[in-house]
What we know:
The structure holds 2 protein chains of 2 kinds.
Chain A lengths: L4 H15 L22 E23 L5 E20 L1 E22 L6 E16 L7 E12 L7 E14 L6 E13 L7 E17 L2 E16 L3 E18 L5 E14 L3 E13 L4 E14 L3 E15 L3 E14 L3 E18 L2 E16 L6 E10 L5 E3 L10 E3 L13 E5 L4 E5 L9 E9 L5 E16 L7 E15 L11 E12 L2 E12 L4 E15 L2 E14 L4 E17 L2 E13 L6 E14 L2 E14 L2 E15 L1
Antiparallel strand pairs in A: 1-2, 1-34, 2-3, 3-4, 4-5, 5-6, 6-7, 7-8, 8-9, 9-10, 10-11, 11-12, 12-13, 13-14, 14-15, 15-16, 16-17, 17-24, 18-23, 19-22, 20-23, 21-22, 24-25, 25-26, 26-27, 27-28, 28-29, 29-30, 30-31, 31-32, 32-33, 33-34
Chain B lengths: L5 H26 L2 H11 L16 H5 L5 E2 L1 H4 L4 H4 L26 E2 L1 H4 L11 E2 L9 H6 L30 E2 L7 H7 L9
Antiparallel strand pairs in B: 1-3, 2-4
Amino acid sequence: xxxxxxxxxxxxxxxxxxxxxxxxxxxxxxxxxxxxxxxxxxxxxxxxxxxxxxxxxxxxxxxxxxxxxxxxxxxxxxxxxxxxxxxxxxxxxxxxxxxxxxxxxxxxxxxxxxxxxxxxxxxxxxxxxxxxxxxxxxxxxxxxxxxxxxxxxxxxxxxxxxxxxxxxxxxxxxxxxxxxxxxxxxxxxxxxxxxxxxxxxxxxxxxxxxxxxxxxxxxxxxxxxxxxxxxxxxxxxxxxxxxxxxxxxxxxxxxxxxxxxxxxxxxxxxxxxxxxxxxxxxxxxxxxxxxxxxxxxxxxxxxxxxxxxxxxxxxxxxxxxxxxxxxxxxxxxxxxxxxxxxxxxxxxxxxxxxxxxxxxxxxxxxxxxxxxxxxxxxxxxxxxxxxxxxxxxxxxxxxxxxxxxxxxxxxxxxxxxxxxxxxxxxxxxxxxxxxxxxxxxxxxxxxxxxxxxxxxxxxxxxxxxxxxxxxxxxxxxxxxxxxxxxxxxxxxxxxxxxxxxxxxxxxxxxxxxxxxxxxxxxxxxxxxxxxxxxxxxxxxxxxxxxxxxxxxxxxxxxxxxxxxxxxxxxxxxxxxxxxxxxxxxxxxxxxxxxxxxxxxxxxxxxxxxxxxxxxxxxxxxxxxxxxxxxxxxxxxxxxxxxxxxxxxxxxxxxxxxxxxxxxxxxxxxx
Amino acid sequence: xxxxxxxxxxxxxxxxxxxxxxxxxxxxxxxxxxxxxxxxxxxxxxxxxxxxxxxxxxxxxxxxxxxxxxxxxxxxxxxxxxxxxxxxxxxxxxxxxxxxxxxxxxxxxxxxxxxxxxxxxxxxxxxxxxxxxxxxxxxxxxxxxxxxxxxxxxxxxxxxxxxxxxxxxxxxxxxxxxxxxxxxxxxxxxxxxxxxxxxxx
Lengths: 670, 201
């Protein structure tokens, strides 16, 4: 009789299960077929039980000028029974089961001014985290997993978000010397609920990944990585973003030379995305590194990329040669020359030649160390006439806490700016997460306090640039910097520094009114002091520019001290004032953080935190946020109790919001 | 013919000064003694090789590998880093016990043992990866020994050879231990006609 592969697999698994019976407890090692005589069935390794209680009272209130006040209160009581443990079926290397399950009852009462948000429910709820690992010592260990978790996400100066994450999937690894391979599939549902519905967020994501890491020969290495994402995302009930994307990357590395001191790395990538935004890319990178001696090395890069967007397709070619020389331990000189050609089909071309020389210098000097650097760069850029708009994808932009992130690109088409997280999955929303201002010469992105963008976060920004006449632009950039760090004597820890850079540009075009060529000089100088737990810094920045000049003064004082086991004290204060003369605006930002964690008794941990943020700006408005939190955790034997209190408020020119909660949790383990 | 304008004269002076400075720098670079050269370069740069330093003891990289007495630890050569380091790469001299994983009996191999060997302080004398000297020693054998054994206490009257700085201690002594007092080598005993004991490594 001919058996199907599935039946053969089940038969083999059953055979292994039967043959693995009778093994001693906690026996490890491979499953040995035919040696075991008796069958143990299910073998329980560990089983723990606990009962949990969680209670929360929460009040969120938003008063917006000219609108009615919105208020939301919640009372939540939860009691559940938790079982966690580990068991083996037949043999721990045959099927290793572990995880936890919580089953309980929940009473939730929500009174809210938001239409449809009121609730008064009793419901059963369940949380779980289960893992089953099959054949862990075999050629093909495989893990099945599933989980459902709930958490409460505290946002600075804003209401708490309830987040529910559910996922299930399978992870399998082929342990082969020839073709090792890891494959994972995961389906993930994330739902985040904001009391007022503003920051609601949900994602349904299916992801398949495959990774193989092969050592072909002693000097050749190959990595293949494939990822498929299918994402349905919704924000605040209005914004919807659906896309599928394939991403395949292959990397081959070859080392050669007497001591394998040279290398050639080849990276090929195929990326295809369809959905709300369509794009595909094919890219090839070649990087040749030659180590001529311990002091001298060269590198040659060649990149070709084909980009296809909804509006157009582009060919991108870049070549660069770089030489680096080290003189003793003090001087590193780097020189590079490169060229870029971008051909946007049927629209126009952009060509660039660039060269740069950088010198870095480090020297032990009396009482400390001197670090200095100097650089000089020249760019010759030729832009052809462009009668249609072109897309600029995924430019990485750092978004500061208060000051706007300036993207110096002129003639951006309104309504085309799109901001996502660094992974390109979560799309941030204008008006909720950030404010956007378009200028003829640039655009500015400013995060909104309480939104989804964290201070200092790096985001990806995509946009479309409008039609533009042809031009030749030459840029000459120079930079110089130095820092003296005192390491000995009374002034140890002191570190004065400065940095100066200048960019001069020359424009040659028949239509100069379409261009905003700016000469920029930036001078930064300051002094730092680091000694023991203390950190002090004072810095002044002067930016001279035709379009975006500003003067900034920054002061920072910090203190961090470990006070013993699980105990520490953190104090931090920053003051920043940015004067922007063209906007007739002075932005002032004060931030203060106090955090203290202490184990005051052997059984009692206490945490206290205070957070203060005050911003004054004529252009962006004023806002003041203040937050206080207290957390107590008490443990005795198998009983743990915790109490958390938080009060948060944010006042702006147009609204006042407050958020308070009290949480109490009790766990008794058996 | 008229006098050149003041600005032209100033430019010419700057050029003259620049040329003189360049000539001075070139002369300093090429014309001085090695010591002076080292002194000037060290004022501007860290890591300038000292002409008076023992060359091989401070050699690194290619200079070290060019040494006629170059030696390399086999696991290092074969890139079996995890054999010694496991998952950590911050091993210090106090971690010499790891050597005993392979060199199992080295601490008890002889009836009379050298103190640091018994204490597994291998890295007092040996480099763990590679060395310009044989047997992975950190320096010339004599320099390694006098790091602990003060030359003034060696008794040059009783053993005149101790006064000969050109000789290596290992010409007459074993490094790890031996059967005789002072770990005297067998061949030294034979050549001097003294009664022999069991052969030593």
